[in-house]
Amino acid sequence: MFKAVMQPIRELLLFLFLAIFSKATAMKPGYDSRASVPSDGGGSSYCLSWRLAVEANNVRAWRTVPTQCLRYVESYMIGGQYDRDVELIVDQILSYVNEIVLSDDGMDAWILDIDDTCISNVFYYRGKRYGCDPYDPSGFKAWALKGGCPAIPAVLSLFNELVEGGFKVMLVTGRDEQTFGQITRDNLYKQGFIGYDRLIMRTAADKGKSAVAYKSEIRKKLMEEDYRIWGNVGDQWSDLQGEYPGNRTFKLPNPMYFVP
Ligand SMILES: [Mg+2]
What are the boundaries of the signal sequence (predicted)? Predict the structure, then answer.
């Protein structure tokens, strides 16, 4: 009698279990979109999103690279992708440059930033865990005073094309003239940056100014001298924002630090 009662109950329970299990399985692909995250747990996916947000200026005033992105940023900077990204941007710049018809008045100007635009600090930042460590002004000063920053090859070719094409190339940097003037000139010369029109650095009067305010003032002075600023290239948004940014601006990648 007991067995006869239990049999249909068992069958009902088994049916309910199978029904619930099959529904849960069928829902899984659409329900859990993270079913296909990479074997690193999605770390590099996060870091790619972070870097994209940094480059698009959606993440601002960040002080350090997220620690979990150390290997990602290292691989990006020295594994070839950074170089390919810069080369693609320089290709875009050159196709724009080739459309410009220069005047013969010698007033066609182009602005290039220096650090991590013309010359690279990636070897310094390797010792700072590619930006996972906080900014170290005295460490950076000691590095820059060695005058050993290597040229960024694609930007050096761009520089040469601009100079040969007849542009007045203005190198505009947040570096301080008194401390870094001579070593920066030497470093640029050794790396092949020869033939620029001016190297404009911060003077005592610029102390304490934000990069945007300082660089805007420099560009304003150039405009007042009647220069036409055809292009402006920098690795920081603060190189390109503010007044008189130039006819076109080009942002080079830099996932290692942010200059406000
Ligand atoms: Mg820079």
Answer: 1-26
